Amino acid sequence: MPSHLNLNGASRAARGRVHLEIARQSRDDWTSCGVRPAGCSLHTSPAVTKAVAAAAAAAVAVPHGAPLSPSRRPPRLMTSAALLRRLASNIGREEAAQELKWLRQHASGGHDSLQNLLAKRVAGQPLQYILGSQPFGDLDIIVRPPVLIPRPETEHWTFRLADVLAHKVRSRSPISVLDLGTGTGCIPLLLCHLLPQGTVRAHGFDISPDAVALATENAAACKTPAVTNDRRVNTFSASLADFASARFRAEIAHLLPCDVLTSNPPYISTSEPLPPEVRDWEDHRALFAGSSGLQCYDVIGNLLAAPGFLAPDGVVALEIGHTQAQPVRDILAAAGLRDIEIWQDPWGKDRTVVARSGA
């Protein structure tokens, strides 16, 4: 992959959200994921890069069993210079230089000392959790453990879905959007931001109280109300619910039929090993989906097959692991959906299955 990724070409750059690929992984193949704090330039001064390069060059490997040098001590006992050398050794000089710039900016806001921030990063805490936010489109999504961090491939297909729905809202407004496993609320909130005001009534559901609280907080930060008497604005609410429960359909009966169903569900096999930065920080309920990784798609297929769940000409968009396109396509076809498409992510991998209900 290139070191810099422009997700949607010139139009994406115009939104001011060019993502730098560093230090995070996609859930299924663990390739790098973009991250930067809001308002940060992507340019790092030569002095910072030179300092990190010098620090990395000074790092020396220690034979097994040898006494710990300052560069090999636990992060909490290391100096800032030693932490920087360790970080450069872990993720590379250029990435460490960029992260250092963001961490310095975060420290300057009085959040924590630079040394403590570096120690957290060297110890494996994801950068997004340290900085507390992740850009997602034009939104700055608040993130904190253990809620799943939004990935750029999810952002990519949400933009594309908004383009599809822009034609739909012209003929039927407002449309109802259900987001299963909403996490931070990033998908419905970006749709509410991109589509004309007054055209979206979005509802997110998650099994995690942490996720529901965070999605509600993000809605407030994005100035998207849960309910309003003003029909000229879009709305989003987050609720605690298990969409795999036999009671789920009855619990949301007042919201049915829905016009749009979205989900970035768990899709990793329970047998697949994960890097510590993901395994030790993000909610396993948002990652794993049985031995096949398809468990949640089977549940969603059963929901969609039920009469009255999806409105005529309704739209379904499901994020998938890059090897799951065909089985998920089959699940949606068995549920009676049509016009099934596979959308690829910016890296050319199958990432989203999109389908429609009958007219």
The name CATH uses for the topology of the largest domain is: Rossmann fold
Task: Detail the poorly predicted runs.
Answer: 1-26, 29-72
Structural class: alpha/beta
CATH superfamily of the largest domain: Vaccinia Virus protein VP39
Estimate the helix proportion, in percent: 25-40%
Radius of gyration: 22 Å
Terminal Cα span:
41 Å
Beta-strand residue percentage: 15-25%
Whole-number total of structural domains: 2
Order of strands in the sheet with the most strands? 8-7-6-9-10-12-11
The total of helices stands at 13
Instruction: Report the order of strands and helices.
Output: EHEEHHHHHEEHEHEHEHEHHEHEE
What can be said about the biggest beta sheet? 7 strands, mixed
By CATH reckoning, the class of the largest domain would read Alpha Beta
Cα shape: globular
Number of strands: 12
GO molecular function: protein methyltransferase activity
Protein name: S-adenosyl-L-methionine-dependent methyltransferase
Organism: Schizophyllum amplum
InterPro entries: HemK-like (IPR004556), Methyltranfer_dom (IPR025714), N5-glutamine_MTase (IPR050320), SAM-dependent_MTases_sf (IPR029063)
Short summary of the structure?
This protein has 359 residues and is α/β, with parallel strands linked by helices.
Task: Please describe what this structure looks like.
The structure is a single chain. By secondary structure, this protein is of the alpha/beta class. The protein has two domains: 36-131, no CATH class; 152-356, Vaccinia Virus protein VP39 (Rossmann fold), CATH 3.40.50. Helices cover 37% and strands 19% of the residues. It is built from 13 helices and twelve strands. The strands form three sheets. Strands 8-7-6-9-10-12-11 form a seven-stranded mixed β-sheet, sandwiched between helices. A three-stranded antiparallel β-sheet has the order 1-2-3, with no helix packed on it. Strands 4-5 form a two-stranded antiparallel ribbon. A hairpin with a 6-residue loop joins β2 (19-25) and β3. α2 crosses α4 (93-108), α3 (80-91) runs parallel beside α5 and α7 crosses α8 (186-194). Mean pLDDT is 83; it is low at 1-26 and 29-72.
